[in-house]
Amino acid sequence: MMRELGLNFYRFSLSWSRLLPTSFPDKINEAGVQYYNNLIDEMLTYNIQPMITLYHWDLPQKLQEMGGWSNPHIVDWFGDYARTAFQIFGDRVKYWITINEPYQVCNMGYGDVLLAPILNIKGVAEYMCAKNLLLAHARAYHIYDEEFRSKQEGVIFISFSAQWYEPATENDTEAATEHNDFEWGQYTHPVFSVTGDFPPSMKKKIAAKSAAQGFPRSRLPEFTPEEIEYIRGSSDYFGLNHYLTFLVYRNESVYGYYESPSYGDDLETLIYQKNEWKIGGSGYTTYVPWGFYKLLTKIRKDYNNPPIIITENGFATYGGLNDDDRVTYYKGYINAMLDAIDDGSDVRAYTAWSFMDNFEWMNGYTERFGLYEVDFESPERTRTPRKSAFVYKQIVRTRELDWHYEPDTDLMTIDEGH
């Protein structure tokens, strides 16, 4: 399928438990190593670069039972795991992503019930997770930078989930700014800002709320000056996952709306989307390309135009090979990206999410993001290219968007020489 599409690179993740069955490097699963070696070597045979994500939400259960990302020892645990991966695969892998979507890991899994491990310890656990996760990312970055970069000549970065939050009215500009600060700025600001640390608006609001609630200190843990410097600049690229845009407002209805303490109560905003943004059957993804453009512009202006790799962007359906809505989505969002590039945004690569239908967490197999449709009912798990796969292949090959394309075949020709 990679060869059919003519891909230049393919992003996939390692399973921590598959590589280290005890969670630690005292035992390495050679069958797991061989599994990834086979994939990496076959890709390189066809000049398809592997882009590996070390952590895409599959924390070993043993580590979760010891506190997971709320345990500060995870900085060492993750560093040991990362070093093992660099040692085994780094001679061939030149693109490393430390952690995928820290907001989803911490805020949705530790402070809410939207993702595993569904701890739902609001206003406390997600902030503990955020600090430790950023330090763990930085640990992996420095290990690679100091021990492997000169020999392996690769790059390493972190991938953020950043949606765009637009003020609903002129009076909601501050609310939207703070929402962007809280939702993705809490993870990007420590890495890419000149000063490092959590965003000032976030520190101020959570400290004030914590004091009013009777806490002896802010529920947002502080970084030491040394930790701030350790994290700041610890990413060769700005990895960006983007799907959605929301309108943000703040009025009297928000006060008392959320549990206290909680992340939502700390932020004090409400969000919604317009009906006209909805295309296709899925309620998860909407079509707002201008939000993508505004997000890329803000990253350029706020962080001195860092080099960006779009590590996820895509559209969900409920199945079917004729996915015109997905084609519309990709054309619109890639065009918005190109507009940002014309304005000076330093975007180096673009990754569609996803290659084929997969397990979409709490949505199971109902939400289909794939360019290829997977028949989950068949023993063979057959995979068939959707219309969007043909279109995406044409975009990859020609770098052109302004054309109408109707596939006249359900087969694609593999380019053996790619």
TrEMBL record:
Keywords: Glycosidase, Hydrolase. It holds the Pfam family Glyco_hydro_1. It comes from the Eukaryota. GO terms for molecular function: beta-glucosidase activity. The active site is at 312 (nucleophile). InterPro entries: Glyco_hydro_1 (IPR001360), Glyco_hydro_1_AS (IPR018120). It is an enzyme of class 3 (hydrolase). Its EC number is 3.2.1.21. One of its GO terms (biological process) is carbohydrate metabolic process. Belongs to the glycosyl hydrolase 1 family. This is beta-glucosidase.
